[in-house]
Amino acid sequence: MSIIDEIAAEVARATVKFPTWPTDPLHAVAVLGEEFGELTKAMLQLTYEPHKTSAEDVRKEAVQTAAMAMRLLMSLDRYTYTPGTQHRQGDAL
User: Fold this and answer.
1) CA 82 → CA 20, 67, 89, distances in Å?
2) What single-letter DSSP state applies at residue 44?
């Protein structure tokens, strides 16, 4: 199986498991960020604490990160690019 096929299969699996995707771009990029964080952790552990992970775990996390990047890309034209509501915090200090 090629890397592209592997990523496509992960996109399909993730879409079945989590069929909805955030409408706003900040939540969508947060999902991607969470996956990238898991990849970063696995890579750090393989480098400095190899007894806690494996090269296969790193590959799995890399594929999942790529799949979430694909899902983000697939929705670029559907995001609502508007600022969220904001509040002042000065009153709380």
Assistant:
1) 20, 25, 21
2) H
| 59, 2 contact by CB (below 8 A) | no
Structure tokens that stand for 41 in this block:
């952790």
Sign of the C-alpha dihedral computed for residues 62, 67, 70 and 71 taken in this order: negative
For 1-53, the pLDDT digits (tens) are 899 999 999 999 999 999 999 999 999 999 999 999 999 999 999 999 999 99
Query: For residues 54 and 46, what is the distance between their CA atoms, to the nearest angstrom?
Result: 6
Q: Is residue 51 part of a domain?
A: yes
Range(s) of the domain holding residue 53: 3-16+24-80
Question: Measuring CA to CA, which residue among 76, 66, 74, 60 is closest to residue 24?
Answer: 76
The pLDDT of residue 85 is 87
Number of domains in the chain: 1
Cα separation, 12 vs 1, in Å, equals 15
Radius of gyration of the chain (CA): 17
